[in-house]
Design a protein that fits this description.
Elements lengths: L4 E4 L4 E4 L5 H7 L9 E3 L5 H4 L2 H10 L7 E5 L3 H12 L12 E5 L5 E4 L2 E7 L7 E7 L2 E5 L8 H6 L4 E5 L13 H11 L4 E4 L3 H6 L6 E2 L9
Parallel strand pairs: 2-3, 3-4, 4-5, 9-10, 10-11, 11-12
Antiparallel strand pairs: 1-2, 6-7, 7-8, 8-9
The structure holds zinc ion (2 copies).
Length: 225
């Protein structure tokens, strides 16, 4: 399934990315979607963002949500949301909702309080506007690279994090806009996270996932921080 991490604790409950298939994944994992307070978006590609219309429609018509939903992400977020909604479910934007949707367009490197967490987006390098995230919640630091080629802003996002979720698209092939495993590993001493979880792997990297000394994300993986 596409990228979506559910971060839940005593007071914080949010999604990090919500790719096109994420509602399917959340239902498979029996996540209480109405308890999700916020969705953080790394960038506006469909495998990270395209599930939001499904999430909102489901909340509106099936889950009978009444609590506010915060959607936070890079500048342009509200316009991308409206266009994605209109393309996916024409007419749905105008329909009345029993809950509010609040948009937080984050400025790079500026912290915001979201769902009981302190969230900072650091500009990454993916050919489109996008963020790596550093999330401080309940005394823990959760970091996520987003999709990106190597950039030192990943050190800002992930420095000494309790968990760093990092793209490892290729094993060792360096391409623009994406991170390969070898480049990531070369920079890990500078980031110095307590735990690494690899994500966004291509077929070749997935086939090698058992051979590397880090956790590789799979659908339904649960990690305690
Ligand atoms: Zn992308
Ligand atoms: Zn992606």
């Amino acid at each position: 399934l596409n990228t979506c991490f559910h971060l839940s604790g005593k007071t914080t409950n949010l999604l990090i990315d919500c790719g096109a298939t994420s509602l399917v994944g959340l239902k498979q994992q029996q996540v209480d979607v109405n308890a999700v307070q916020a969705i953080l978006v790394s960038h506006f590609h469909g495998d990270h963002f395209g599930g939001i219309p499904f999430f909102v429609l489901h909340a509106q018509f099936f889950a009978k949500r009444t609590s506010p939903l915060i959607i936070a992400g890079p500048p342009g977020l509200k316009s991308w949301f409206e266009r994605a909604m209109e393309i996916t479910f024409p007419g749905a934007l105008a329909a009345k909702r029993k809950f509010s949707v609040e948009f937080l367009e984050l400025k790079p490197s500026e912290a915001a309080e979201i769902a009981g967490a302190t969230v900072t987006g650091f500009a990454n390098k993916h050919g489109v506007i996008g963020f790596a995230y550093r999330i401080v919640a309940e005394g823990k630091v959760i970091a996520y690279s987003g999709d990106t080629e190597w950039t030192d802003s990943l050190i800002d996002a992930g420095h000494k994090a309790d968990i760093f979720i990092a793209e490892a698209y290729f094993h060792d092939k360096q391409v623009p806009f994406h991170l390969d495993y070898e480049t990531l590993v070369a920079h890990l001493p500078a980031i110095d996270p307590k735990q690494v979880v690899l994500t966004h792997m291509n077929e070749n990297m997935l086939a090698m996932a058992d051979t590397v000394p880090y956790d590789a994300a799979y659908d339904g993986l649960v990690v305690a921080v």
